[in-house]
């Protein structure tokens, strides 16, 4: 985001946090905001109107009232007025911000049920499954297939097997990618979750699955190193042979056997 959009996002956030503090139904708020994003994405004239930097903020907030008053909850309307009333650098920045508030509402709903860690784990694992299966990836991401059929496929795969919040976010990523690849969309949703929960995320690759105790111990160790909560996602890859590889932010800590063997081979060839 450019400067004015960053300022707009910061200013509009008060309306969003106020809606959550007022006791908004998180799931309903998420659904309403995502529906508005779909409306904006499908109507270029409306997008231009709400993002028009030459219009007064009060005028654009009033537009939100005219368009959505009585059609969404009072909390959702307050968020939309807060977003529409700001000065945005681009139309996309405005709609992206509404989408981010919707995703954060889903994570807030999971937090209420103490499921936020579970939702993050499930999103990460499903994205890895899709990445490893070209046929499944094609079936989920082929936009020539009607969105309702792709949604039905998601439901058939995940209903009853994951948290409701996970299902909602995967369904959203599949049916409304908004020009992004599936893995990028899920990664974006996970970044929103990490920001909301004030944590960093580490991806740990090992030759065999880590036990819950090992994972907790690793998370605690990383938290002490990086000075804050660290959520650990795990990947099993027999090719590493042993040890673990940890990716966190832009850093890579590679303690795998294959890395050490590669180093030995290079040394012998030097």
Automatic annotation (TrEMBL):
Membrane-protein topology: Peripheral membrane protein
Q: Write out the annotated subcellular location.
A: Cell membrane; Membrane
Give GO cellular component annotations, separated by semicolons: plasma membrane; proton-transporting ATP synthase complex
PROSITE patterns recorded: ATPASE_DELTA (PS00389)
User: What keywords would UniProt list here?
Assistant: ATP synthesis, Cell membrane, CF(1), Hydrogen ion transport, Ion transport, Membrane, Transport
* GO terms, molecular function: proton-transporting ATP synthase activity, rotational mechanism
Q: Which domain of life is it from?
A: Bacteria
Q: What is its main location?
A: membrane
The cross-references to InterPro entries, in alphabetical order and at most eight, read: ATP_synth_OSCP/delta_N_sf, ATPase_OSCP/d_CS, ATPase_OSCP/dsu
What Gene3D superfamilies does its record include? N-terminal domain of the delta subunit of the F1F0-ATP synthase
Presence of the UniProt keyword Transcription in the record: no
The record's comment on protein family reads:
Belongs to the ATPase delta chain family.
Q: What does this protein do?
A: This protein is part of the stalk that links CF(0) to CF(1). It either transmits conformational changes from CF(0) to CF(1) or is implicated in proton conduction.
Q: What is this protein called?
A: ATP synthase subunit delta
**What is the organism of origin for this protein?**
Intrasporangium oryzae NRRL B-24470
């Amino acid at each position: 985001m450019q400067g004015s959009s960053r300022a707009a996002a910061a200013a509009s956030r008060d309306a969003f946090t106020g809606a959550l503090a007022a006791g908004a139904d998180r799931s309903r708020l998420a659904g309403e905001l995502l529906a508005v994003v779909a409306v904006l994405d499908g109507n270029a004239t409306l997008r231009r109107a709400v993002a028009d930097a030459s219009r007064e903020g009060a005028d654009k907030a009033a537009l939100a009232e005219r368009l959505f008053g009585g059609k969404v909850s009072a909390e959702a309307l307050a968020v939309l007025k807060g977003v529409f009333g700001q000065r945005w650098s681009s139309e996309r920045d405005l709609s992206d911000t509404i989408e981010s508030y919707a995703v954060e509402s889903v994570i807030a709903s999971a937090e209420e049920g103490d499921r936020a860690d579970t939702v993050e784990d499930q999103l990460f694992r499903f994205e890895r499954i899709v990445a490893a299966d070209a046929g499944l990836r094609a079936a989920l991401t082929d936009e020539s297939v009607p969105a309702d059929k792709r949604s039905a496929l998601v439901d058939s795969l995940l209903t009853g097997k994951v948290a409701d919040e996970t299902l909602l976010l995967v369904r959203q990523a599949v049916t409304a990618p908004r020009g992004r690849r599936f893995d990028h969309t899920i990664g974006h949703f996970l970044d929103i979750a990490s920001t909301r929960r004030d944590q960093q995320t580490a991806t740990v690759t090992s030759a065999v699955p880590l036990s819950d105790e090992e994972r907790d111990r690793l998370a605690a160790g990383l938290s002490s190193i990086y000075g804050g909560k660290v959520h650990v996602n795990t990947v099993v890859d027999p090719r590493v042979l042993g040890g673990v590889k940890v990716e966190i932010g832009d850093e890579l800590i590679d303690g795998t056997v294959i890395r050490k063997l590669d180093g030995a081979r290079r040394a012998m060839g030097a």
